[in-house]
């Protein structure tokens, strides 16, 4: 898997799982599925950060998103 794609999928999964965690806490139930999703997202982000030759900085993330969208969706 491409490390840029893994980073984008990890960030998107992490962001989308936050409302699920908040919903579980507000309903006073355990956020099991949300926690697993966050772990998967974190694993993808760590995989991408370790396999990119020069590492990833915060200012590169928007460029990575645009490149992945351009490469796989257009």
Entry summary:
With 74 residues, the chain is mainly α. It has helices spanning 3-26, 32-51, 61-72.
Topology of helices and strands:
Elements: H1 3-26, H2 32-51, H3 61-72
Helix pairs in contact: 1-2, 1-3
Characterise the protein shown here:
The radius of gyration is 14 Å and the shape is elongated. It starts with a helix and ends with a helix. The relative contact order is 0.20. By secondary structure, it is mostly helical. The protein has 3 helices and no strands.
- What proportion of the residues is helical, as a percent range? over 70%
Strand percent estimate: under 5%
Number of E-type strands: 0
Q: Spell out the helices and strands N to C.
A: HHH
- Largest pleated sheet: none
Query: Helical element count?
Result: 3
> Shape, please?
elongated
Beginning-to-end CA distance, first to last residue? 19 Å
The chain-level structural class is mainly alpha
Key terms:
74 residues, mainly alpha, 3 helices, 76% helix, elongated
């Amino acid at each position: 898997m491409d490390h840029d794609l893994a980073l984008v999928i990890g960030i998107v999964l992490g962001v989308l799982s936050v409302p699920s965690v908040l919903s579980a806490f507000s309903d006073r139930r355990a956020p099991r599925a949300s926690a697993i999703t966050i772990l998967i997202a974190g694993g993808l982000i760590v995989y991408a950060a370790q396999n990119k030759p020069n590492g990833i900085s915060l200012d590169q993330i928007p460029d990575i998103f645009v490149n992945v969208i351009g490469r796989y969706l257009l």
